[in-house]
Amino acid sequence: MTIVRSEEFFADTSVLPIHNSHAVEAQLHRIEGLAEHFLYSNDDMFFGRPVSPELFFTPAGV
């Protein structure tokens, strides 16, 4: 897993910190090397138990 901080992909870092998930999602395409299939999470989501990649992805990708 790789955690990418907003400072690494926001075009205008003067607006940071930002607490609007829509603004963050509008910048995701700027993450260098982002895979075709990825898992995005924000502060509105949490995992209540341990999870593994197989829960989200198949060997084919999705």
Automatic annotation (TrEMBL):
GO function terms (MF aspect): transferase activity, transferring phosphorus-containing groups
Q: Which InterPro entries match?
A: Stealth (IPR047141), Stealth_CR2 (IPR021520)
| PANTHER family per record | N-ACETYLGLUCOSAMINE-1-PHOSPHOTRANSFERASE SUBUNITS ALPHA_BETA, PTHR24045
Question: Is the keyword Cell cycle assigned to this protein?
Answer: no
Q: Which UniProt keywords apply?
A: Exopolysaccharide synthesis, Transferase
Record's keyword annotation contains Transferase: yes
A Pfam family matched in the record = Stealth_CR2
Q: Which family does it belong to?
A: Belongs to the stealth family.
Q: Which residues form the Stealth protein CR2 conserved region domain?
A: 2-60
A GO BP entry: polysaccharide biosynthetic process
UniProt-recorded name of the protein: CAZy families GT4 protein
